[in-house]
Amino acid sequence: MNSPTHPCAAQLFRRAKRARGYSIVEVAVTLAVAATLMAVGVPSVASMLASVKLTSVSNALLFDLYLARSEAIKRNGRVVLCKSADGVTCASGGGWEQGAIVFHDVNNNGARDPGESLIYHEQRSTSEIRVSGNQSVGSYVSYGPDGRSRMASGAFQAGTLTLCRQSSDSTEARQIVINSGGRPRVQKALVSFCG
Fold first, then answer.
1. Nearest partner of 52 among 184, 185, 163, judged by Cα
2. Is residue 140 a contact partner of residue 182, using CB atoms and an 8 Å limit?
3. Which of 10, 93, 188, 194 has minimal CB crowding within 10 Å?
4. Alpha carbons 57 and 47: distance in angstroms, whole number
5. CATH tag, 23-191
6. What does the alpha-carbon distance between residue 83 and residue 101 come to, in Å, rounded to a whole number?
7. Rounded CA gap, 108 and 80, in Å?
8. What phi, psi does 105 have (nearest 5°)?
9. Which residues does 141 contact at the CB level (< 8 Å), separation at least 6?
């Protein structure tokens, strides 16, 4: 097709050529590339968000441990961090994901009794994160005036709190390891099951 010779017609012809749009093949290829990028990107974003939640909950629990330890030194007396569903008393069952309290344990029994002052209450909000402790730190962590962790019986207390997303497959986890001196540290781990 030859271009028109009239100046106005030539201008209209150039505009019509520029405003032609995309072919169906170009649109299909663009959509295919976008779908591929989304398929690759969405799982990694979901994994990243899950990792951030796990880190957030482990940092909150680590803060609780450091608070209990520093309060024991400051008060020159025993301070306990225990799991608590109601924010008032220590829970005998369930995991640490239900929440925790820090209190001044005047009678050194590892449980909050009437009259013992509540220092802090941590309410957990993420239900998909499970937090469990091995036997020595399954219910509480207790710090003496010297900043060392001790059981209610007086024996040294060391253990591991494991935080993971609820899963029947192997999954990423965080572990808070409390050494015999009472100092906690966080490490990454992989667990085979988290229920």
1. 163
2. no
3. 93
4. 16
5. 3.55.40.10
6. 6
7. 9
8. -90, 85
9. 65, 68, 80, 81, 82, 149, 157, 159, 178
What is the residue-level pLDDT of the chain in tens, covering all 195 positions?
455 566 666 665 666 555 567 788 887 888 888 888 777 766 677 778 888 889 989 999 999 999 999 999 999 999 999 999 999 999 988 889 999 999 999 999 989 999 999 999 988 766 788 999 998 999 999 999 999 999 988 898 999 999 998 877 888 899 999 998 899 999 999 888 786
Tokens of residue 62, six digits? 């680590």
Q: What angle do CA 123, 117, 94 make, to 5 degrees?
A: 35
What does the block give as tokens for 180?
């015999």
For residue 141, what are its two tokens?
């962590």
Q: 176 forms bridges with which residues in the sheet?
A: 161, 186
Q: Structure tokens of 149?
A: 């962790």
- All structural domains of the chain with their residue ranges: 23-191
Verdict on whether the full-model pTM lies above 0.90: no
Q: Report helix, strand or coil for 44.
A: helix
Residue 7, classified by CB atoms within 10 Å of its CB into exposed (0-12), middle (13-18) or buried (19+), is exposed
Counting every residue, how long is the chain?
195
